[in-house]
Amino acid sequence: MHIVVAPDKFKGSLTALEVADRVAAGIAAVHPEVEVVRVPVADGGDGTVDAAIAAGYERIPLRATGPTGDPVDTAYAMRDGVAVVEMADVSGLRLLPPDRLAPLTATSYGTGEVVRAALDHGCSGIVLGIGGSASTDGGAGMLEALGVRLLDAAGNPLPRGGGALADLDRVDLSGLHPAVATARIVVACDVDNPLLGPHGAAAVYGPQKGATPDDVVTLDAVLAHWADVVDAATGRPDVRNRAGAGAAGGVGYAAMAVLGAELEPGIGLVLELVRFADHLPGASLVITGEGSLDEQTLHGKAPAGVAAAAAKAGIPVVTVSGRLALDGAQLQTAGISAAYALTDIEPDVRRCLADAGPLLERLATTLARERIGGTTP
């Protein structure tokens, strides 16, 4: 018998691997005889590449273009011809200071550079996690990095960023990376927004990326124009209305319309990548969690996915988190037997963030005493 520890990150304080390590240390302090298997997870956003690397993928480092044009050091993960690419790590909102957001000029170009590098390396499968993006460019930058030319009426290349799409006259797909035609590209996506309108990329997510109300109107209009031009080039006018087309500022649209990508729930993809199911036979308990266990957790976040997979295998699940905002009925519905939060032992949220590691290890000892059988020396 063993225990599987499969948490997501505690955003702002601990990576998923650090969470798993601290929980394992707390368990070992009480039950050193119990085997703990650490399987860090993610939901397609921050930490997706790290989760793949922790599961045995090779880290392939490279330098690419950040969301506002500055170079950033990033990486993708690779195993058996499959590359895991994380948009948040190269084109992510977290790469920009809060006072330097760029809603009209931020680009997804760097994401395309990482995908291109993986294709150049011979990867035949791409898993693209698109959570946490900084841009609302409809995926134009990503496509440009993959060889698509975006031209104005005079035949000149457009500047990068969503705002520049107002001057788009045509797209030239003839230079698209040839490996796109044969590669299987799967996008980890947990939202169902269309590209345009009140539930679209600009209206729903633009304000999080610094867009003013006027910027939202501008971006929605240029994305509509972008879709008109791309639709004319691809002959696929239906894509803009598909669920997920508005994900990551429209990267979902570009991936489906031009790259032929499939969209799948992020946590399900990550659980497959890390071979989570392989660790369940013989497990007596699964421990998962994230920084804040709340209503959002129940809608496609990593702990909900882990709990659902463990429940199918008949294994009880408990959670650890920084804070807990779910009641007993909600936990039970999600398949969670018990929940432990740092705020249970330290009411000061600032201390929970600053001292998350030691506090989590202490919390795990309580969990171990209450939930884990074994022979305590």
From TrEMBL:
PANTHER family with a match to the protein in the record: GLYCERATE KINASE
GO molecular function, one term: glycerate kinase activity
Enzyme class, broadest EC rank: transferase
Name of the protein: Glycerate kinase
InterPro entries listed in its UniProt record: Glyc_kinase_flavodox-like_fold, Glycerate_kinase, Glycerate_kinase_RE-like, Glycerate_kinase_sf
Keyword match Metal-binding: no
Superkingdom of this protein's organism: Bacteria
Family, as annotated: Belongs to the glycerate kinase type-1 family.
Entry EC number(s): 2.7.1.31
Keyword vocabulary terms for this entry: Kinase, Transferase
Organism: Pseudonocardia charpentierae
